[in-house]
Amino acid sequence: MKLKKFLLLFMSTILFFGLAACSSEETKSGASDSKEIVELRVSWWGGQARHDKMNELFDLFEEKNPNIKVSREFTVENQYAEKFTTQAAGGNAPDVMQTSSFFQFDFVKRNMMLDLGTLIDSGDIDVKDLDPVDIEGGKVNDKLYAISLGHNITGVLYNKTMFEKAGLELPKNNWTWDEYVEAAKALQKSLGKDAWATEDEGGVYRGLELFAQQRGKSVFKGDGLGINKQDLTDWFTFWDQMRKDGLTPPADIQSEQGDKAQEQSMLALGKVAMISKSSNQLKIYQGSAKDELAIVSYPMDPNGEKKVPLIVASLGVSAKTKHPKEAAKLINFVVNDPDAAKIFKGEHGPQASKQMQEVIKPLLGEPENKEYAFVDEMIQSSKPYPSMPSNSTSVQKLLLSTNQAIAFKQKTISQAVDEFFSQAEQILNR
Amino acid sequence: MLNLFDQKRWSSIIPYLFLAPWLIGLLVFSGFPFLSSLYLSFTNYNFVSSPNWVGLKNYLTMFTQDPQYFQALKVTVTYVLVAVPLELSFALFLALLLNKGIRGLGIYRAVYYIPSLIGGSVAIAILWQQVFGDNGIVNQLLGYAGIDMPSWVGTPDYAIWSLILLKVWQFGSPMVIFLAGLKQIPQEFYEASSLDGAGKWKQFIHITLPCLSPIILFNGIMQIISSFQAFTPAYIISNGTGGPVNSTLFYTLYLYQNGFGNFQMGYASAMAWSLLLIIAFFTGLIFLTSKKWVHYGDQG
Asked: Which of A251, A255, A394 comes nearest B262 by C-beta?
């Protein structure tokens, strides 16, 4: 009897709250007849300079679209994928998100992104002016999921002043691995003890990808790995030798560097002379570096495959968004509106729309001119970025910790390679 | 039928009415997730497709095929076994000092308590990352003493120590409890023992420690449980990787990586339930041995 009473009370309380919830819903939908304000959540990654630009951009968008409020979420690149997937897992993903060739395959395969086909057919997103290479770069399984903000090619950002001090000729595009190591050794001689020729990049996925591409392979293939143990052994051995020759920072300094933003990076602070990054990063690093920086292609195997994968940074829409039209409007604004282009100034590299490229041309500075020259030359021999399986972002992180284990001498290269393969396969088979 | 005007009935219902907000919260926000995670721990669940039953597979993988799991367990147990005794000793030591009836006790107590309030926060973890970095203040001070140390947070052998120090630094809350306990010890014990010729050390061993043992038990268990669940400092200091080389891969951090990095919610739930059992094991162990070393005043 007591239980019954309790249950009755319990149920009625729940009902009461249920009623309250219903009624608030009704007032909401009632208000939509008049001008309802739509809140659009947008997320991106980057350093402070980009956050400032994005804020300015979305302020302008709000001004032009008074019925849309853009709420903004941002973080550094290495934590971005994890944050976004966590939000998506909780059914709480932002409506519009930044993505790139490195992330989009994983995001799409986890059903987190919206196929943009219908929004393009309905004219909400206008892709007429966009370069075909950019369109191609936003596709997964032949469907367009991401609209390019700009295209990039991985190159070596280098400190020109340090090269000159070392009495070195400036490197030319398509330089070889041997030339790269020679330059590093010469640089190290002139840099002395407190700075290093290059960051330790044995744990950097994008480097390994280029290394594999030159062997006619790719880190990922289908749902598994596309490289074999020998490839990875060669890669780790190369970087191990670089460390032993003192051309990279010691393991502890490299691991502390982690994923600090550009402003606090060793390149900007003059502690290393070279790092490999997307070409659009040149101007961002230059913004906080004292010395003059420049960019050159990633070292090549003279006998290997010479086509380089094109990286596209882009915007996508969450698969679960309630405001696809507004999201499309925002993307369309960013990629096609000249006023937006003038604020954005090719932050993510040359924009997909040639028209927009023309609009901003007079506004570009010296670092951008170097970047555009580099991209224009290298894009001739580019190909779309290779597809990746779901969970590939976790394997990218595994590469980093595997390289660390070797650098700290906790594992031999062959141990580390074996463990990488078994763990990567475990991750990819989930 | 319920008679709305029956006072007796109402008086038995009203307490539940007042409890309802909390009770509903407990059932909906704790009870439900609690039970569903138990269910999920026997499934393979990646958020996208619905969970499918795999029986004990998650638990078997964990204990037989996942070297990372044992690494995480090793890091966490080391952390608990080193940090908790250190923290408690430090807290007791300061409580003894403060118990000497010094002036401004309230101020000291408040100041020493502050780290306990903020120690688990993101801001402090970021501060710690700077303090124990390669050019951090700790290495600069050691540098003056002629000791050349690598980056604490960047070196696998030392990174865990920066986290242990962070834990010990939060000695404030056990200290306050110890202080209260010390005040409870009857002064007569000390007077009687000094008449018998006991020195300070003997008094500490034979009076202070036994009288304080229930408090030590309480503090110990609370700190062990919270240390097993430590997450924020390791997450921030290692940028979410548990690095360098998994040296700060706390149990909860690895759990988080599995659940939200790899979308393996079933596996993460299994890890959470194993953690519950591990904590229960340690707590149980302490309770069992406590009969031997904990003295309650009323037992004479």
From this structure: A394
Residue-wise pLDDT tens digits, A271-292: 999 999 999 999 999 999 999 9
Asked if the interface predicted TM-score (ipTM) of this complex is over 0.85, the answer is no
| Separation CA A302–CA B68 (nearest Å) | 39
Facing residue for A408 by CB, picked from B12, B65, B244: B244
What pTM was computed for the model? 0.79
d(CA A107, CA A276): 24
CB contact under 8 A, B155 and A408: yes
Residue A381 DSSP label: G
User: What are A209-268's pLDDT values in tens digits?
Assistant: 999 999 999 999 988 999 999 999 999 999 999 999 999 999 988 988 876 778 889 999
Query: In degrees rounded to 5, what are phi and psi of residue A189?
Result: -60, -45
Q: Where are the alpha helices (DSSP H) in A101-167?
A: 104-109, 117-121, 132-137, 160-165
| A264 lies within 8 A of chain B by CB | no
Tens of pLDDT, residues B242-253: 878 888 999 999
**End-to-end alpha-carbon separation of chain A, Å?**
50
The string of DSSP letters for A150-195 reads EEE-EEEEEEHHHHHHTTPPPP-TT-BHHHHHHHHHHHHHHH-SS-
Within an 8 Å CB–CB cutoff, is residue B133 touching chain A?
A: yes
Residues of chain A found within 8 Å of residue B260, distances taken between Cβ atoms: 82, 85-86, 89
Distance CA A253, CA B133 (A): 9
